[in-house]
Hints:
heterodimer, A: mainly alpha, ABC transporter involved in vitamin B12 uptake, BtuC, 12 helices, globular, B: four-stranded antiparallel sheet, 10 strands
Amino acid sequence: MSIxxxxxxxxxxxxxxxxxxxxxxxxxxxVQRRLALIGDGIGHIALxxxxxxxxxxNSPVLTATLTAAAGAVAIELVRERGKxxxxxxxxxxxxxxxxxxxxxxNLSASHTNANLMAYxxxxxxxxxxxxxxxxxxxxxxxLAVTVGLRPWLFAICHxxxxxxxxxxxxxxxxxxxxxxxxxxxxVAMRAVGLLLVSALMxxxxxxxxxxxxxxxxxxxxAMGIGVVVAGAGIWFAGMYDTAPxxxxxxxxxxxxxxxxxxxxxxxxxxxSRQGLDEAAAEPPxxxxxx
Amino acid sequence: MSHPPVIELRDGVVGYHDRPVLHExxxxxxxxxxxxxxxxxxxxxxxxxxxxxxxxxLAAGTVAxxxxxxxxxxxxxxxxxxxxxxxxxxxxxATVTEVxxxxxxxxxxxxxxxxxxxxxxxxxxxxxxGLADRHADPVTTLSGGQQQRALIARALAAEPELLVLDEPTxxxxxxxxxxxxxxxxxxxxxxxxxxxxxxxxxxxxxxxxVLVAHELGPLAELVSRAVxxxxxxxxxxxxxxxxxxHHADPGHQHVHPHAPGEPLGLWNGTGRx
Lengths: 290, 273
């Protein structure tokens, strides 16, 4: 573990752990809504914000957060209308975001594309204590929303019509979730980069839902998996000099593959053990699974 | 003092994209009534209840719930809504308890942690629909009928006075339909619990039920009044019409794959064949 005696490795580790905890906590709602790719789109939009920060010598994290939040709210408004043309509107928003980012960065003489690469694919090894403070505060906000408001956010993601009949402030909660998604994207940008943000929001959740039977259990397990793969990814990257963001994501995918094999094997085992008496006891009813 | 009507819809017009689906429909539901809204596919049944609940905007007309205009109606816990089915199986698993608990939020208010009474109400609702032994299971592992019962438990968890059910028995096996009828019977017969003292002056004995259905099946004996819609207009309001007449309606487009000789209430759209 000697590599973690280096300060920059410590910062990288802490930053990755914060990301690993916060991204799946939010991603659980996106997966539940079948909007797993929305984080990717918001990442595209955030790139314009990063470029604005680099160009105007402001903090790229701040400008990215603001731009991503505005984009997320716009996406939510499109989704709310449920128009078929919404699909195209989202595509325009996403590609406009990435093109705007590249365009703006190239305008600035001092900043090269290398700088952009750091935001696209992450550069946790350059994390500073100042970055960590910002990340910790933002992650605290994300966790307060995603864990503290779990029953309400679950209700609107699970059945929006019912939530509206129940008198929940559906629109406010939807916008809150959209902004929290944008904040998560900018927190995770440092560790895994904008192009891989969605992976850390979605893959731990996909893994956890294979193993857990409830929503709360899935969210908790996903957060645990996120922390483990983020920590292990930084360690691996430090030991073997690999790209940290990509390493974290590949580890998460490996975990997903492992969980798939384990859960299908366990289910087969259980079915063969229980199959006989269950078939006798239960009348053949319709099972409305996907 | 007489109680205000539970639902009062006056001259309601609803249209999708300029195509009117409801034409100036008026409907008043008194406390304790069990109203069935019948009609063919596309007759406007679901549109009618969605407009009453505020899920669809009225192009013209007014709705009042419990004597309060819809726009100012805040006591949402007095309504229990059971949609046709669980939304296309959400991605992340959720247990029966988690789904039913979301029905309790209407009484909980934002940010307030669940109290013992909330947990008790959720457990009671789950037991009422006979899913107590499945409470920790993911809803997607339940049968269609059991999922429908979970949605009814979610509506009951708020301890409502009005239960609105949108095609509750469509695609549900016969055993679940009977269990479902027993649940509705219990709701109609129940006196308001201690919670009702909060709403003193509103409490009206048994619960009120509005039920959208193709066919009533085991629910027929509970229904005190039936409204039949045809092409967005009320064509019958009164006693439950004989099913044959309803099916003989010229505009009836009942295309479910069931043989004509089958007993009523046993068919279902997806469960058979």
